[in-house]
Amino acid sequence: MKSLVDNQELLPDGPNPETIRSAGFGMFVSLIVHAGILIILSLIVLTTSADSPLEMLVEFGDEGTEEESSTLEQVAELKLIDPAEEQLIVPLNLPVDDLPEPVPDPGSIIDSLSGDVPIDVPGSVSDEGTGGTVDPVVARMISDRVQQAGGRRGEVQFSLAWKNVNDLDLHIVAPSGQHIWWLEKESACRGMLDVDMNVNGESKTPVENTRWLSNAPAGRYTVIVHLFGINNNQFRPTDFQLLARLGRESELVTEQVSGRERLIVSRFIYPGRVTGSKRQSVIRRWTQRQQTEEKLASAILTRAIDSQGERQRTLLQSIIQKYPHTDASIEARSLLKSSLGKD
């Protein structure tokens, strides 16, 4: 018998066939496993793409600064201006001495004053509904003459009537302070002088008319009747009637002008659409304001009279601008000459 060594020597050189078969089977199994893993991974990727589409992040330029972010926030907070808010517009064609002054809220006027301060403000309407005794026949006569002359009735209206050929002029200082007269017939607050008569003495029953058709501003209305021209030697005093309509109230003023007293002034307070106790409060506060302004304007007028040249003109113009409803303002206009044009 041959020994074990001999048997080993009898074995041929190279790998054992059993080992080869075992290695081949392992590689096959490995390929199957890896292929399966790849298939599973591909299915996961496809499912994710379908459920969550890809998003592109694109950046233009550098990242915004903190200041830019703040500006954007401010722009986002901007609010549109409410068109219902009323704004005072200064007409560009007004003379320097006729620039309107913003009208303060009657509810906040001169709260520092204590008690009711009496003041003579002619024409302050009462709460009775008429503001004084109005003869309906006279009121109808004046209204008819205004209508025949082409004038219109308004929420607030002032109609001047007289009975000779002289030339009387109707001047109105609106609540804003703007002066309505024959050289400036329409105001920014829609007041209008729509009848101006007897420039050449053409009528023996003339009228003049200034009105606010609707939405008339609340506040003080100062009315000045001026005897501008004497026609056909009518030197006798001229009687006139002024019919004032303020909302549902009316008042009739009867006066006269002459060569000696060429200006007659009446003041009216129109509280607007307020009623009851609030209405009386508004009238009282405007009355208080009138008294205070008279004192302030009078002090400036005294200084103006004591001044000369440009200094005097500056003071007079400041009275007209700041206190247009005062007696001092009317005197300042007369002193300036050009303010009334025809003087």
What would the keywords be for this entry?
343 residues; alpha+beta; disordered C terminus; 18% strand; four-stranded antiparallel beta sheet; elongated
Strand content: 15-25%
Shape: elongated
In the predicted model, the low-confidence regions spanning at least 5 consecutive residues are 1-14, 48-131, 339-343
* Helical amount: 25-40%
Query: Overall mean pLDDT score?
Result: 74
The total count of helices amounts to 7
The largest β sheet comes out as: 5 strands, antiparallel
SSE series = HHHHEEEEEEEEEHHH
Molecular structure report:
By secondary structure, the protein is α+β, with helices and mostly antiparallel strands. The protein has a domain at 118-336. It has 7 helices and 9 strands; from the N terminus they run H-H-H-H-E-E-E-E-E-E-E-E-E-H-H-H. Helix 5 packs across helix 7 (327-336) and helix 6 packs across helix 7. Residues 1-14, 48-131 and 339-343 have low confidence and may be disordered.
How would you briefly describe this protein structure?
It is built from seven helices and nine strands; from the N terminus they run ααααβββββββββααα. The chain is an alpha+beta fold and 343 residues long. It has a domain of 219 residues.
